[in-house]
Design brief:
Length: about 200
């Protein structure tokens, strides 16, 4: 059996799993990301390489196609793949199916949209943990809205002028700051009323 052709690679369950691990390792979850955040802080210390032999046999099997080039990968990529394979192996079959679906949707997006989502994800990752928590809380609240209300909010955003969008973002920042302050004071549950 020769080397796999691109068509066979895409239809192979092993390649599909590897593709999903790669997606877990390097791309954001496909969801509506939060509004733009402040620029990223300076990077921390350089990542340490991950030895192939330090991976579990299950991880090595899953990442098998990467084995020959593992030592040539940047340490950041090695760490991301090791972490992604750990996540993949800990998932239930249903979670793996969902991850494959997200990866398929990700691949179907235009390159510009994927780049925009990557940048938004990086901005989110650069936020302090308390601000990430508030953004997640807002996203979960948004997800709980009835579909019609979510559609109305998306339509309001699309129809807004650039100035109106800036006003919306400023209001959202102020609300987020109030929630952060509320959480920092040890408050739980709902945020304080508007000032």
């Amino acid at each position: 059996m020769g080397s796999p052709t691109p068509t066979r690679m895409r239809s192979s369950p092993r390649w599909a799993s590897l593709a999903a691990v790669l997606a877990l390792a390097g791309t954001p979850v496909l969801a509506q990301e939060p509004p733009a955040a402040p620029p990223a802080a300076p990077a921390a210390a350089p990542a340490a390489p991950v030895a192939w032999s330090s991976l579990t046999p299950e991880q090595q099997k899953l990442l098998g196609p990467m084995g020959n080039q593992w030592n040539n990968l940047p340490p950041e990529r090695q760490q991301a793949l090791a972490h992604g394979s750990e996540r993949w192996l800990s998932m239930s079959p249903e979670q793996r199916d969902q991850a494959r679906d997200r990866f398929s949707r990700w691949q179907s997006l235009p390159q510009e949209q994927r780049q925009s989502l990557r940048q938004r994800w990086q901005r989110f990752q650069a936020l302090p943990p308390n601000e990430q928590a508030v953004v997640r809380q807002n996203f979960h609240r948004y997800q709980q809205l009835p579909p019609a209300q979510r559609q109305m909010l998306r339509q309001q955003w699309r129809n807004a002028t650039p100035e109106q969008r800036q006003q919306m973002l400023e209001r959202a920042r102020q609300q987020r700051q109030r929630r952060i302050e509320h959480l920092e004071r040890g408050g739980g549950g709902h945020p304080p009323p508007k000032r």
